[in-house]
Amino acid sequence: MARATGGRRASSRRLSTARVGFSLPALLWYGLFMIGPLVAMFVISTLDWGGFLATPEAAGLANYRKVFADEDFWTAARNSILQLVVVLPIMLPTSFMLGYFLTLRRRGHGALRIIFFTPALISLAALGAVFYAVFQPQGLLNAGLTSVGLRSLATPWLANDTTALPAIMLVNLWSGIGFTAILFSTRLASVPGEVYEAASLDGCGHWRTMWLIAYPIIKGYFGVLSMLQFLWVLFASAGLILILTRGGPGTSSTTLAYLMYDKAFVESEIGYSQAVGVVLFAIGLVGMLVIRRTFRDQT
Amino acid sequence: MSTDRGRTPRSGNRALLALSHSAAWLYAAALLLPLYYLIVSSFKDNLSVLDTPFALPTSVTLGNFAKAFDDAQLGPGLANSALVALGAAALTIVLAVPAAYGIVTSPGRLGQVLEGIFSAGFLIPGFAALVPTVLLAIALNQFQTRQFLVAFLPSTALPLSVVLLVQFMRAIPRELEESAAMDGASRLKILTAIYLPLVMPGVVTVTILNLINFWNEYLFALILNGPDPEIRTAQVALPTLISATSTDYAVLAAGVLITLLPIYLAYAVASRRMEQALLQGALKG
User: Fold this and answer.
1) CA angle B125–B131–B132, rounded 5-degree value
2) pLDDT at B7
3) Domain ranges, ordered by start, for chain B
């Protein structure tokens, strides 16, 4: 650029000033449909609003006081945290190990890859419908338990308040592990082969190669996938709960995301719902920061 | 691996490999079993779905598919899904390609700041803003219309689409643009005649990714587009086959297969491209 002629420089400057304009429509769209509603959530959480057609009134922090005094909120918070601390520590290490196994390219790895990939294409509604059938009293799970002599374990999974939430978590794991494993294997495939060869020459078994050599190299990526699944479990499973249990029996499978949905669209307590939304947003932010710190690359 | 202490690494290794091999196939079986159940159930009657869930169907009839199609009114549902997914994916490209062009060609820090704004979008879960989005739709007098869903969905896809397209555009040498500008080409002309053809692979990847996500969208489609059979999408129509007291599981299974069919057909035709799109999508997430 320094050696460009005067005419060239002028034309390229003229070009550059208006180029930003090309980004404006997308920026406006994004502001209107994403940032705007997000900001509005904070405002609505301070309003007393009894339904979408009612007139809202200022309520200060009354919604928050109500939320924090509500037993259902604490049940939902407990369920959300339980869901996270059970699902994530199982899903991520398992996916990482399966991903490592895939990169070894043992016999049948191509077939495994295709099978692991299938849940990524299934919609939440289809997933819900399939597992609604699997978990019903005469469904696949109970039939399977009966056929291997574990009939005593059979139960109406979605209608039993001790098994409803675990059933949801099982679906999270069923649909999440395979695709996450493929993602890990794609990332691991970019680790240079010499690294593994050197480890093998030093007498490192696969277990040590996996955790002491491969894991530190892709630690940052482990963090990225943790965040992805963290957000997915925290927010997106609300749709699954809506189809499978509607938060029940009682409140036994109500999570914070489902509570936010339920209060707004079933019970018409919009201010309350958005106060939960703000709490949920804060949990999401804190969780992401914690994950980021934990998995920061040391290099 | 304390159990391996004392053994040679080689035998420990072999045991570990055998274990991982079984674990991987066990999980694969766990993935396939519900899908097997889904397929065989769709050809049975409700009674044999309940009595003999593992058995193969005794006859092959398409009755369940016809009933699911009628009961959930999947005809209009699938048409609406296609309309919404295609419309929203097209709109996303119309917005994201110029945005990426602006970011790549803006001088100095401006481009970085713009890219940062879109990247920050990864941290915003769209679901958090569901209720205010409903209020926006009501305020615009567009609540429970397909066009609002088409207008809304791109905002959920813009961060990823823009960031992916930026990466594709960065690979284009800037000299191309400068020489075109010398020849008097307008910026719009440079975008459509030089950049767009060169980033077509990126446009295809982003569009595949968005089509899958828009086709599969459930909660926003349920709330923003609503349950009216004439305008609801297939994903919203499907769960209506579930009833607390009298679900016909054979019909439900057939309904699930109908809504999965378009995606898996597309996958059979373009599996490599779809895998790449989903992998790249998640990589940036």
Assistant:
1) 90
2) 45
3) 2-41, 65-284
> Which of A3, A28, A30 to mutate against chain B (most B CBs within 10 Å)?
A30
| pLDDT > 90: percent of chain A | 44
Name every chain B residue with its beta carbon within 8 A of the beta carbon of A274. 131-132
Statement: residue B279 has pLDDT above 80:
no
Digit-coded pLDDT (tens) for B103-154 = 888 877 888 888 888 888 877 777 878 899 999 999 898 998 999 999 999 9
Which domains are present in chain A? Answer: 6-58 (no CATH), 65-294 (1.10.3720.10)
What string of H, E and C letters represents the secondary structure of B89-123?
Answer: HHHHHHHHHHHHHHHHHCCCHHHHHHHHHHHHHHH
Contacts of A273 in chain B (CB under 8 A): 131
**Does B239 sit within 8 Å of A243, measured CB to CB?**
yes
Which of A107, A123, A228, A259 to substitute to test the interface with B, most B CBs within 10 Å?
A123
Q: Is the pLDDT of residue A298 over 80?
A: no
CB contact under 8 A, B126 and A34: yes
Which pair of structure tokens corresponds to residue B125? 């879960």
For A95-126, write each residue's pLDDT tens digit.
999 999 998 888 888 889 889 988 888 999 99
Smallest CA–CA distance, residue A208 to chain B, in Å, is 9
Please report where in the chains the tokens 């940052």 appear, as a residue: A220
Question: Does the distance separating the beta carbons of B132 and A131 come in below 8 Å?
Answer: no
**Beta carbons of A275 and A67 less than 8 angstroms apart:** yes
Q: HEC string of chain A?
A: CCCCCHHHHHHHHHHHHHHHHHHHHHHHHHHHHHHHHHHHHHHHCCEECCCCCCCCEECCCHHHHHHHHCHHHHHHHHHHHHHHHHHHHHHHHHHHHHHHHHHCCCCCHHHHHHHHHHHHHCCHHHHHHHHHHHHCCCCHHHHHHHHCCCHHHCCCHHHCCCCHHHHHHHHHHHHHHHHHHHHHHHHHHCCCHHHHHHHHHCCCCHHHHHHHHHHHHCHHHHHHHHHHHHHHHHHHHHHHHHHHCCCCCCCCCCCHHHHHHHHHHCCCCHHHHHHHHHHHHHHHHHHHHHHHHHCCCCC
Token pair for residue A293? 């710190």
Query: CATH top-level class for B65-284?
Result: mainly alpha
